[in-house]
Amino acid sequence: MKTVSLALSGAAARGYAHIGVIRELINNGFKINAIAGTSMGAVVGAMFAANKLDEYEKWVKNLYQHDIINLLGFSRKGGLINTDKLFSVLGEMIGQNTLIEDLPIKFCAVCVDIISKREVWFQEGNLLFAIRASSAIPSIFYPVEANGHLYVDGGILNNLPVGALKNAQSDYVIAVDINSNTKTKYDVYITQDEEERQNSLFAQFQKISKKIGKNSQNRYSMFDVAAISLDIMQNLLKSYRLAENKVDILIEIPQSICKVYDFHKAQQLIQIGQIATKKALDYYQQKQ
User: Fold this and answer.
1) Which residues are catalytic?
2) Burial environment of residue 101 by CB neighbours within 10 A (0 to 12, 13 to 18, 19 or more)
3) Angle at alpha carbon of residue 23, lines to 17 and 26, rounded to 5°
4) pTM above threshold 0.70
5) How many angstroms from the chain centroid is the CA of residue 23?
6) Which parts of the sequence belong to the PNPLA domain (predicted)?
7) CATH architecture for the domain at 2-287
8) Model confidence over 77-99: pLDDT tens digits?
9) Running DSSP on this structure, what letter comes out for residue 114?
10) d(CA 232, CA 251)
11) From CA 113, how far away is CA 151, in angstroms rounded?
């Protein structure tokens, strides 16, 4: 069986595509024995590493049943979102006290310590803490504080953490960039019932967006400004990361597939992850 070290990038809702990527790799006979992830890449990677991806996928596809506004807490100052309740739910899936070193496969969550101004790799310690630190998007989510350190989203410095896989022994290194500038379009299908459920969930996210930042004088919400800023920075840094580290297969998923807060589009994004992976594998095989 072909073994894979997998690097998963971040980009909020687009990270759902990683679920489809993992499904397609397994369907094609790959065994994933190491994962390094940033932000949503760390979240999805952790779910797989903890053998909870099925449960997580079911949860994201049924988010419309939950009170999202209640799941996310708001600061009275600064417009920041408190993710305590959200990560409590994720903790119920993977275990509040699960340690990275106890996982059946190697795992690394990448974040940035803004106190020491450096990139940090969590390769041991509490898994839930690591993914929460890795996905704390600046100006949107509260930073994660511990022992005098203040951790935020790893995408600030490293949104495609291939370097964290250097010591993993695998047949292939595969990187998944869900923030690509490619123009690929995907033909995906959802039922009418699913579309209605997504519209219900989207209405909840619209309320959140209005609550934290957009008014009649501003074209972009706080979500939009933070997301666009990160996209620009991450795409600039990505080329350096790929030049530094060898990748056997690069799966590119365009940032245009959705906005970073389109969490209601789980069905489509998972399908896109599968389609993009199949195309990348076919292209790789044709080159051999």
Assistant:
1) 39, 153
2) exposed
3) 140
4) yes
5) 15
6) 6-166
7) 3-Layer(aba) Sandwich (3.40)
8) 444 777 888 999 999 999 999 99
9) T
10) 19
11) 5
